[in-house]
Amino acid sequence: MNTLHIPVLVKQTIAFLVSKPSGIYVDCTLGTGGHFRALSQHLDRESYMIGIDADPQAVQHCTEHLSISQPHQFITSNFADLKRVCYRAGFQSVDGILMDLGLSSFALDNSARGFTYSQNGPLDMRFAPNISQTAADFINTASQSELVQVFREYGEERHSQKIARRIIEERAKNAIDTTDQLAAIIKAIVPGEFRTKSLSRIFQAIRIYINNELEVLREGLSAAVTLLAPSGRLVIISYHSLEDRIVKQYFKNEARDCTCPPEFPVCQCHHRARLKILTHRPILPDKFEIEDNSRARSAKLRAAEKLPG
Ligand SMILES: C[S@@+](CC[C@H](N)C(=O)[O-])C[C@H]1O[C@@H](n2cnc3c(N)ncnc32)[C@H](O)[C@@H]1O
Question: In whole angstroms, what is the distance from residue 149 CA to residue 143 CA?
Answer without folding.
Answer: 10
